[in-house]
Amino acid sequence: MSKKSILILMRHGESIWNKKNLFTGWVDVPLSEKGIQEALNGGEQIKDIPIDVMFTSTLIRAQMTGFLAMMHHSSGKVPVMQHVGEGKLEEWAKIHSDNTKKDTIPVYYSWHLNERMYGSLQGLNKDETRAKYGKEQVHLWRRSYNTAPPEGESLEKTAARTLPYFDEKIVPFLKAGKNVFIAAHGNSLRSIVMKLDNMSGDEVATLEIPTGMPLIYHYDNGKWIQK
User: Fold this and answer.
1) Distance between CA atoms of residues 192 and 163, nearest Å
2) C-alpha dist (Å) from residue 62 to 3, 19, 124, 126
3) 38 CB-contact burial (10 Å; exposed 0-12 / middle 13-18 / buried 19+)
4) Class assignment of domain 5-226?
């Protein structure tokens, strides 16, 4: 039987390429100073919510955000990366103290939660791209549900990898009554919010998820309620 639990979604803070106004996608760049502060500020908003498990993408900006957000968590627990199936990384990283284990939060990461892959736009300046292709076309690439950037992913394709992972790997923790924190990206999180809020493709086209701002859902017997 499902239990009540909490799901926290947080888009990573501003990255250095966000600051430079560049399309980033799967290019693995870190947070800017502003982004670091955004992650810390977001953490302040969730510091008193018990967190049992964390999920993030393989990209450093999301991982930095998740760890920074937990810096001042009231539990004092330490997030610890879980290198499942990674040979020596998993084998040699075992914790041999039950007391220490109790003071940690397992962190799982997967490419399924990565940002939308922006194809041949990655590394291009957004304003220069608008000047070349037109504002409407660039807006379509960035916000529409089923239109992909050149050689990249649409939100529909992003959702096709993000949502099965969410359902198979993350929801079971929520059904077991565990509180889950996901630090990820604008588009991978848009696909999750689309599912939770039963949004249409047209509705999700206008959805903007702010950087470093936690979205909190209560899960109760299969129902999602945003707080």
Assistant:
1) 6
2) 28, 16, 21, 21
3) buried
4) alpha beta
pTM: 0.96
pLDDT in tens, 58-93: 999 999 999 999 999 999 999 999 999 999 999 999
Strand partners, 216: 8
Backbone angles phi, psi at 23, to 5 degrees: -70, 130
Residue 12 has pLDDT above 70, yes or no: yes
Exposed e or buried b per residue across 134-173, where buried means at least 16 C-beta atoms within 10 angstroms of its C-beta: eeeebebbbbbbeebbeebbbbeebbebbbebbeeebbeb
Q: Which of 38, 115, 153, 185 is catalytic?
A: 115
Q: Tell me the domain boundaries of the chain.
A: 5-226
Q: How many whole angstroms separate alpha carbon 147 and alpha carbon 154? A: 5
Residue 115 bears catalytic tag = yes
- Helix 126-133 to helix 135-143 angle, to the nearest 10 degrees? 120
pLDDT in tens, 35-57: 999 999 999 999 999 999 999 99
Residues 35 and 12: beta-carbon distance below 8 Å: yes
- Annotated catalytic residue 73: no
| pLDDT tens by residue, 108-149 | 999 999 999 999 999 999 999 999 999 999 999 998 899 999
The torsion angles phi and psi of 149, rounded to 5 degrees, stand at -65, 160
Say which of 12, 73, 112, 185 is annotated catalytic. 12
